[in-house]
Specification:
alpha/beta, Rossmann fold, 5-stranded parallel β-sheet, elongated
Length: about 400
């Protein structure tokens, strides 16, 4: 395929937690989202209820004029690591929607969560003549030069799940702001502690974080936000050690989880804001004969990857978002930009089958970050979900 030199362009999605929700135009096969806790039958905390939409201004923002059709484009879709249930489900969603949209999603990655491996995939995408890249970065700084080179070569660059540096991409499709997802992690922790008879507001709660690595921007931002919430609302909690990292390696997640349990036999809570760390930590607890009434473990992972531990009573609850929709959105935006479309903050664009979405400034994710006048910004997913034994069988990813 002949490589084309095009401008990196963007579009938009509404921020459900703080701005207008993404309008559902019929993602018919996407799993239904859970109601907030205040309305749900279960006791699981709400994944953050959307506030009422702000009153519309006198003149609605017009959808930006289309510069071209996404049909026929090729998007190289890059996960942090292959073989992980979260990323495989994201690819499934991207492939399903792309078939309807008429473009190709080329899923390429490595079984090792490595910036060097991602750089090789980026370079291969450029050499192959792809139109666009959509990447979840292992290390934003580690892939910066390769992404800038891809942009210079004429590829549109989007990120999803874990961001690059904002000047190295056009749009980021994020699962939520650090404050929203940090709050969700703390809320799930508090609810599960309460269910096993601990008083989170008054008891000393010994806890630690276990996730992938210090260079992953999304997980670190959630941890920092969660720590701020804990310091403000639960000053009686005691962080027993620095963060534990298992580098999105399934075997290392189990051994790291066992090391935590060996070092801190009286630990109350382990927060795993990573889809490899959570099942690994649960497996380590199960291996030691620990269940949900002995220790609280929670975090983010796909429902099916954790179902066996839920069925075995190793945890009360965990959460996530629709990663299939996220993967599809990221690939659509990359193809849309490659087709020569242009957007700016506040513009609204329709993603067929998903809805009308609005672009937000970069500082909604990273305080103080700047946003270019055009073709730069953030798009947020509309909802997150808390999974429990009562609803896990309602999902298939």
């Amino acid at each position: 395929m002949k490589m084309k030199k095009v401008m990196s362009l963007a579009l938009a999605m509404s921020m459900v937690f703080t701005m207008t929700a993404c309008g559902g135009n019929g993602a018919a096969e996407a799993p239904a989202q859970e109601a907030p806790a205040a309305e749900a039958e279960t006791e699981a905390p709400a994944a953050e209820e959307a506030p009422a939409a702000e009153e519309a201004p006198a003149e609605e923002a017009e959808a930006p004029a289309a510069g071209g059709d996404v049909a026929g484009k090729t998007v190289v879709f890059i996960p942090k690591v292959t073989g992980n249930a979260f990323f495989e489900a994201a690819n499934d969603g991207a492939q399903k929607y792309a078939a309807d949209w008429g473009f190709t999603v080329d899923y390429q990655g490595s079984a090792t969560a490595s910036a060097a491996d991602q750089v090789q995939v980026i370079n291969n995408a450029v050499a192959s003549g792809a139109d666009a890249i959509c990447i979840s970065t292992v290390d934003a700084a580690g892939v910066r030069d390769a992404l800038l080179a891809a942009k210079d070569a004429g590829l549109a660059v989007c990120t999803w799940d874990s961001d690059a540096e904002s000047d190295a991409r056009s749009l980021m499709v994020s699962q939520g702001t650090p404050e929203v997802l940090g709050q969700m992690l703390v809320d799930m922790s508090v609810d599960a502690l309460t269910k096993r008879g601990v008083d989170p507001a008054n008891d000393e709660v010994k806890y630690v974080w276990h996730y992938s690595q210090a260079t992953v921007t999304d997980q670190n931002s959630w941890q920092v936000a969660g720590e701020a919430i804990i310091a403000e609302k639960y000053p009686n909690w005691v962080k027993v050690a620095d963060n534990y990292y298992s580098e999105q390696d399934a075997e290392k997640a189990v051994s790291t989880g066992a090391a935590i349990l060996d070092a801190y036999a009286d630990i109350d809570l382990i927060i795993c804001n990573d889809s490899t760390a959570l099942p690994g930590q649960l497996k380590a607890a199960q291996n030691k004969g620990l269940g949900k009434d002995d220790i609280t473990i929670t975090g983010f992972a796909s429902p099916m990857s954790i179902k066996e531990y839920c069925d075995a009573d190793v945890l009360y609850e965990w959460g996530l978002w629709d990663c299939g929709i996220q993967g599809a959105m990221g690939c659509y935006l990359a193809a849309y930009m490659a087709a020569g479309n242009e957007v700016k903050v506040g513009d609204k664009v329709n993603i067929p089958g998903i809805g009308d979405c609005e672009i937000l400034a970069n500082d909604c994710l990273s305080e103080g970050d700047t946003t270019a006048d055009t073709n730069n910004g953030v798009v947020l997913l509309p909802e997150t979900t808390v999974f429990t034994a009562d609803n896990v069988n309602d999902y298939n990813f």
